[in-house]
Design a protein that fits this description.
The complex is a heterodimer of chains A (110) and B (158). By secondary structure, chain A is of the alpha/beta class. Chain A has five helices and five strands, in the order ββαβαβααβα. Chain B is globular. Classes of the chains: A alpha/beta (110), B alpha+beta (158).
Chain lengths: 110, 158
């Protein structure tokens, strides 16, 4: 998986590509948490190129959501692929995390 | 891939049990490490593509195997030099994966109650979803313990 993060004025845009699973979940979580700790507590995750997500990867979003909520910020994901959407549905995360259709909507909502 | 006389015997023994010589099979040996799951995923994707498996079946069986293997390694870390054996079999209407590994008995099918899927974010436990995923994505999941070895059978209807 590759991950790029652009952050500015309290907003971090995280672009995830490839696979998020037990092999890279801890590293991904640490990098996003570092953004929150640096003051970027509005987090947008672009999942348009994330084609594999396991429960270990899903855990990253849960941790980040709890962290931003505690910090008074927010987490919004956008452009889920079919595989990732299915994982969100079977875990029930589709009902507890905010998911948008595109980047503009996500930035407006977060 | 490690070829040992022992593994050779095991492979020929399992092929004798096949109901039909035309049933495509593939056997992989993985180290008991999380990083091996990617190698497994690639092998399943190639196997599925080579034999024309359509739709989400390969993805679902890969994700279920990922959850079960991750769970097994994290709950009961086996020595990393211990190998897991994965056998793939494509029957006429089913994709089947058998995962076998030595070590402490561990039956994921009776492991936990279903997670509360509607709980608010503050109350969601971190973890505990893996087995739920596997059960949801598969059409069959069974466990047997035989001669000191855990055997999991994952079935996905096509």
């Amino acid at each position: 998986m590759t991950m790029t993060i652009e952050s500015q004025d309290g907003l971090a845009i995280v672009v995830l590509t490839g696979r998020l699973d037990s092999t890279n979940a801890a590293d991904t979580e640490a990098k996003i948490v570092a953004q929150i700790e640096a003051g970027h507590k509005r987090v947008v995750v672009d999942a348009s190129a994330l084609d594999y997500l396991s429960s270990a990867g899903l855990r990253v979003f849960l941790v980040v959501a709890k962290r931003v909520k505690a910090a008074g910020g927010g987490l919004v994901l956008h452009s889920l692929t079919n595989h990732v959407r299915e994982v969100f549905e079977i875990s029930g995360f589709i009902n507890v995390l905010t998911v948008c259709a595109n980047r503009d909507e996500a930035v407006a909502r977060v | 891939m490690i070829v040992s006389p022992e593994s050779g015997i095991r492979e020929s023994a399992s092929s004798l049990l096949l109901p039909d010589v035309m049933v495509p099979t593939e056997t992989l040996r993985l180290a008991s490490q999380i990083s091996e799951i990617r190698r497994l995923a690639l092998a399943v994707e190639k196997f599925a593509a080579r034999h024309g498996v359509q739709g989400n079946a390969a993805h679902h069986i890969i994700l279920a195997a990922d959850e079960l293997i991750t769970n097994a390694i994290e709950h009961n870390p086996p020595p990393p030099d211990l190998q897991m054996t994965v056998m793939l079999r494509l029957e006429r209407k089913r994709l089947i994966m058998e995962i076998s590994y030595q070590g402490t008995p561990f039956d994921p099918t009776v492991e936990t109650k279903a997670p509360e899927l509607d709980a608010p974010i503050e109350d969601r436990p971190i973890g505990g979803l893996g087995v739920h995923f596997a059960k949801t994505l598969l059409d069959g999941l069974s466990y047997v313990r035989r001669q000191g070895t855990n055997h999991l059978t994952l079935t996905k209807n096509l």
